[in-house]
Specification:
The protein is α/β, with parallel strands linked by helices. It has eleven helices and 14 strands. The chain binds nicotinamide-adenine-dinucleotide. It is an enzyme of class 5 (isomerase).
Amino acid sequence: SEWEKRVKSSSKIRSKSGFSVLVTGAAGFVGTHVSAALHHRGDGVLGLDNFNDYYDITLKRARQDLLQKSGIYILEGDINDAVLVKKLFEVVHFTHVMHLAAQAGVRYAMKNPKSYVHSNIDGFVNLLEICKSAEPQPAIVWASSSSVYGLNTKVPFSETDRTDQPASLYAATKKSGEEIAHAYNHIYGLSLTGLRFFTVYGPWGRPDMAYFLFTKNILKGKAIRVYESGDHGTVSRDFTYIDDIVKGCLGALDTAEKSTGSSGKKKGDAQFRVFNLGNTSPVSVSDLVSILEKLLKVKAKRRVMKLPRNGDVQFTHANISLAQRAFGYKPTTDLQTGLKKFVRWYEGYYGLRKKSHH
Ligand code: NAD
């Protein structure tokens, strides 16, 4: 069928690595960049995304267009659709799964708690069930989150720090994902690597995130709410540029060992890893706004407030030495440089760049 042809051609491997990767959440922010990078180096890539309306679908469609123009196919479907996902594994023998599909955002959980359980827990389990029975069993790299550190106040955050105090339902489902993954690794010998991303930003970013909302409202002359402090001092984030995150994702994929399967071999042999992927230099939200003011050449109307208990934690700060040792992860983009690239993209995408008169 036409469908199978497109799936197969998109998954065609052109590199020596021999990787064929299923990317879930491929029309998402991180998924778009990771898919493009994998395709660019010659790996076979098939995208899967349900195009939900958590944020502007036009932006997801634009990312899809961008990828499809370079020959990457993004199938519209849900990770909970067992029939569809099983069929994909029959048509393509994926060597790897890059699982990025999720219900993201911490505040939206107050409005729609079930969407978090649906995508981040049920959907993940559905995917793992299919991977465990797939032949060959793919190695899986998936997105966890820095939010698992919750109320932890010991900085920088190391992978061995406590993660038993989530501050949001989003964090709770991401933490559950890590425990579910561990169980699948232990019982079925699936190779699993979790990546705890720290506040990722950049071109094609997510419109629900603070840096994006600030840019939009500063340009419109609208007031912005800046949560400067909380119970424990300044509110800050370890903002990490998308290209650095992509390098980390590829590093994790490249060093992922094969799944061992549960038959014959000693159980628990396969790899289970969890890594922080951050920038290691947190910036206060207040300084983030100042950088944006300079780049946009507009003064923000700041409404300075104290952080309420809305799911946001007060600060994040990654210790990245584990990822550095495992696959040479080393972020190279500071916030100023990265935001400049974001702003350029934003102005271009929304047609705001000043046209020359000639
Ligand atoms: P995103 O929302 O842009 O991308 C997620 C994509 O998954 C979306 O396109 C969405 O349509 C799709 N999706 C959601 N539920 C699905 C389902 N049930 N079936 C199929 N597709 C589904 O978010 P992002 O910023 O690109 O995040 C990617 C991953 O990284 C997520 O797992 C997120 O939780 C995690 N993460 C992101 C950040 C960040 O700062 N961006 C930080 C920590 C963790």
